Amino acid sequence: MRIADLxxxxxxxxxxxxxxxxxxxxxxxxxxxLEAMTDLRPxxxxxxxxxxxxGGSDITLxxxxxxxxxxxxxxxxxxxxxxxxxQAVEERLDKLLSxxxxxxxxxxxxxxxxxxxxxxxxxxxxxxxxxxxxxxHPELCIGGAAYAEGHITCDSMEENLSHLxxxxxxxxxxxxxxxxxxxxxxxxxxxxxxxxGIKAPISAGVMPxxxxxxxxxxxxxxxxxxxxxxxxxxNKYENDPDGLVKAGIEYSSEQLQGLAAHGADGLHIYSMNxxxxxxxxxxxxxxxGAEAARV
Length: 295
Hints:
Distance between the termini: 32 Å
Number of strands: 8
Shape: globular
Strand order of the largest sheet: 1-2-3-4-5-6-7-8
Strand content: 5-15%
Radius of gyration: 18 Å
């Protein structure tokens, strides 16, 4: 099923994100994780390009195929373009289609860590990749990235929204935001996107707090801001890793419940291959939905 059609059938659409194992391990190394995640019956599972955000896409597509074929859950494999030739991109799309997959998350990807130039002819931006996919494979449903607090390279929210609109015009069918820790950021962003004429569904991306180093990495990579409550949680559980994980799941569960109550198009959980996190967050979402139904 095309993920865009899920948004027409229900709100919110609930999804999880996982990453492939290291290059020297095959898909079979995370089969237990896949089984546990699919048992939770999310609407779809997103599979990143690779652990750490770079590398080959074969294992990403293999895992996405297993999720759909073996477990009957829709899969959203990521596809990046900045380090690939158009020919390589087309080969990956052919493999994606051969596995019966109908959805793809089109991303620019990370610039080469060694400072080398991208290969000749590589797509410069995600919008270029989206346009190429839509032109050659209109049957595919294309997801794009959104940034509730603005992309770290954008100087203003207006610029951020302009890039988002260009992705939609290129053919993006839905969006998933980068993580954020303050729901008000998402509410303001979503309202501004609609006022800017962006009509595609936008799922809110939420990542539970697991440790101080994780938070520091996210701040520098994504430009996410930290509410004072997060800082207090980090300080309170500085020497209590288990307590921090529990508090992190509680905080993200509150975020997700609030987003659902506010009418978010979708809820996307950066579950980091940890079924316990996904289970806790999904239980909170479903409990919130049941309570709303009783009211």
